[in-house]
Design brief:
Elements lengths: L4 H28 L10 H55 L6 H22 L20 E4 L2 E4 L7 E3 L5 E3 L4 H6 L8 E5 L8 E7 L10 E7 L2 E6 L4 E6 L5 E4 L2 E6 L7 E6 L5 H12 L5 H61 L3 H25 L9
Antiparallel strand pairs: 1-2, 3-4, 5-12, 6-11, 7-8, 7-12, 8-9, 10-11
Amino acid sequence: MRISTSMIYRQGTSAMAEAQSVLARTQMQLSSGRQLLSSADDPVAAARLLQLDTAYAQTQQYQRNSVMARNRLGTQEQVLSDVENVLFRVRDLAIQANNDTLDSMSRAFIAAEVREAKEQLVQLGNTRDSERNFLFAGFKSQTEPFSMTSTGVRYNGDQGQRQIQISDTRTVVDGDSGSDVFMSILNGTGDISVSANSSNTGTGQLGARSVNDAALWDGEDYTIRFTGPDAYDVVNGAGAVVLTGSYSDGETLDVQGVSIVLGGVPNAGDEFNLGPSRQQDMFTTVQNFIDALDASTSPAGNATLHNQIGNALDDLDRGIDNLLDFRTRVGTRLQTIDAQEISNADFSITLAGASSQLRDLDYADAVTRLSQQLIGLEVAQQSFARIQGLTLFNLI
């Protein structure tokens, strides 16, 4: 085989160029700390890295969503606690006012404080979160949910519940509508509601009431109408008498599976209404208490006052129970977020480790390769220098 001088030059320069290229790539790996400099280095690994990076970014977004949801739920939990404290204070005032030793001025002072409590409830219902969105407006987050009107407090939001994604398969509700929290509360005992007619002239006062036979209670409306101080008729919604009975002070009336303790002496024509519990907002509950405090203090008026305060206490208890239910829900959601955040953090570590194995450089291996490549380049350069100097003219 004939080897020309030009071939020697081409092979030598090609070998040195290839060695320099390999050395330059190793130097770039060392300076960047990355094993893969481009997708061409390892297309399969590059595609896998893209998947891992996408999953990692998505998981980090879920973590940010979790923080947002926790902040909003934390604000809601604090507001619910504040509302609960207001209702407990109103309840204490109701117990205080349900006392015949108080005069009209004392009850007026109590009524003034209860009015302040009602305004405070409206303010709490209009609380905003850290992003200036109203907590209890549903999807209408820029609409003030509660407003005072001449007929009572009006709800301006909707029934929507915002949900936020905290993992591929899990969402969490980050708020509740004011309709559910403040407006849709069953009055009475939660099963039944018993009230005295405001036009009663006797001293009949309602006591404890409960459903003692669910099979007999049909959930209809009835009127207990006294035909005299010691006798009554039970009239259904159609006006038909379904039951008659006798009465003495402190007796328990049994009406359609419902037990009602009644004290005092009703007059003929006095009526007490029995029906299923119905939805009533807590603002109306507080206003009913205020109206009772503003009523007259005659003997019949005192009976009406005690009956109305008794109903207010029942309704306040239902409002407090409703708040406790929502606080429990918020606590459960916060626990869900905490658990999911731990899971997301663990998954992020796994993804980061897998990405590192594909992307990051093994410095010990790279430094060893760099040393070998430097030696190889030096040998190539030295051998080329000696070979290119060989010529037949040296033998003449």
